[in-house]
């Protein structure tokens, strides 16, 4: 088994704990932390509406921050099938084929089947939602995604009473994905959610970004976006969705379970063994932009904390 780990974060990018502790203390005293925690879902949308094919922006899903510039969103990526460099997904993905594309839905469902992309797109009206994406590497972006809740597909296929988890298997095209040669991951890249997490209205099946079809670097032609979890839970270029009874062994849990948990809920209180998760670097804001405090569940605590009532989030990281 490969022992690859997410790269070390350079010390220069990490705020010393004493600094973020005192900054948090100050923010708490100023009442700002609490205000910003609830702000994610409440603030009105800022930018113009997207074109109708990709849906209009839903003001109920916005973020109190500027959008990350589109160029950063599409050229600073993690998609290890194309290489581990941030620009590899945009520069080394020219041969990747996204047509025709099918997604097999199987396992514990009453209506299994193979959906082509147009079948999937017809399942629900597309809308634009601005979500924060927080990577486990302690950087973040604020991104307008185009898609609809995964719940629409789940209701169509009807899970049986045995379905407790949903597994997402992503594509493998050896001739078009130069990163596969390194065997960092036991390909294909696999991620999974608990059924209730998958059904949560925030869990988005995304087909577009910035009002256009997803570029390959961002997971064309369809990917998941689970905004309260570290980015690695959001599988790109999905080809299979499997409903199962037992918790699947997902790619990063298989590689380093002590570093990357199954839940991977964004949690500033639980440090990664090799770096703090208390603050984040905002991609696209310039090198001098200050790091900002990371919020519990990435700012979505009001909507998702109840999913984890009674679960020890230090052990189930
Ligand atoms: N999906 C696949 N198939 N392969 C990957 O390497 N990387 C994950 C996730 N989905 C990854 C993936 C990680 S680590 C992150 S942070 C997000 O995609 C990044 O999404 P973005 O590059 O669109 O911002």
What does the model show?
The protein is α+β, with helices and mostly antiparallel strands. It has one domain: Sulfite Oxidase, Chain A, domain 2 (Alpha-Beta Complex). It is 18% helix and 20% strand. The chain is built from 9 helices and 12 strands. It has helices spanning 17-29, 32-39, 70-75, 88-91, 117-121, 151-157, 195-199, 251-255, 301-304; strands at residues 102-107, 113-116, 127-134, 139-149, 165-170, 190-194, 204-209, 212-213, 223-225, 238-244, 279-282, 292-293. The strands form 2 sheets. Strands 3, 4, 7, 8, 9, 11 and 12 form a 7-stranded mixed sheet that branches. Strands 2-1-10-5-6 form a 5-stranded mixed sheet. It is globular, with a radius of gyration of 19 Å. The structure holds ligand MTE.
Shape: globular
> Can you identify the CATH superfamily?
Oxidoreductase, molybdopterin-binding domain
Largest sheet: 7 strands, mixed
Rg: 19 Å
Helix/strand structural class? alpha+beta
Helix content: 10-25%
CATH-level-2 architecture:
Alpha-Beta Complex
- Count of individual domains: 1
Structure ligands: ligand MTE
CATH topology: Sulfite Oxidase, Chain A, domain 2
Compute the number of strand runs.
12
**Mean pLDDT level:** 88
């Amino acid at each position: 088994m490969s022992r690859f780990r997410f790269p070390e974060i350079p010390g220069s990018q990490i705020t010393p704990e004493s600094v973020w502790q005192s900054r948090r203390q100050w923010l708490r005293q100023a009442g700002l932390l609490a205000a910003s925690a609830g702000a994610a879902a409440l603030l009105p949308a800022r930018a113009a509406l997207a074109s109708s094919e990709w849906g209009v922006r839903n003001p109920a899903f916005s973020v109190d921050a500027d959008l990350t510039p589109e160029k950063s969103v599409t050229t600073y990526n993690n998609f290890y099938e194309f290489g581990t460099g941030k620009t590899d997904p945009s520069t080394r993905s020219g041969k990747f084929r996204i047509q025709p594309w099918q997604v097999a839905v199987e396992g514990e469902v009453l209506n299994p089947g193979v959906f082509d992309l147009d079948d999937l797109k017809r399942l629900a009206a597309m809308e634009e939602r601005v979500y924060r994406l927080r990577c486990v590497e302690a950087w973040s972006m604020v991104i307008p995604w185009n898609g609809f809740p995964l719940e629409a597909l789940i209701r169509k296929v009807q899970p049986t009473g045995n379905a407790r988890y949903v597994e997402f298997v992503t594509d493998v095209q050896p001739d078009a994905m130069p990163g596969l040669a390194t065997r960092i991951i036991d390909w294909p890249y696999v991620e999974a959610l608990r059924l209730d997490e998958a059904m949560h209205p925030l869990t988005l099946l995304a087909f577009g970004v910035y009002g256009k079809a997803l570029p390959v670097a961002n997971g064309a032609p369809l990917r998941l976006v689970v905004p309260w979890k570290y980015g690695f839970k959001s599988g790109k270029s999905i080809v299979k969705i499997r409903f199962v009874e037992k918790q699947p062994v997902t790619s990063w849990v298989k590689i380093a379970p002590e570093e990357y948990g199954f839940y991977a809920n964004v949690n500033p209180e639980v440090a990664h063994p090799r770096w703090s998760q208390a603050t984040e670097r905002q991609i696209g804001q310039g090198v001098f932009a200050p790091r900002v405090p990371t919020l519990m569940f990435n700012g979505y605590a009001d909507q998702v904390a109840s999913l984890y009532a009674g679960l020890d989030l230090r052990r189930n990281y």
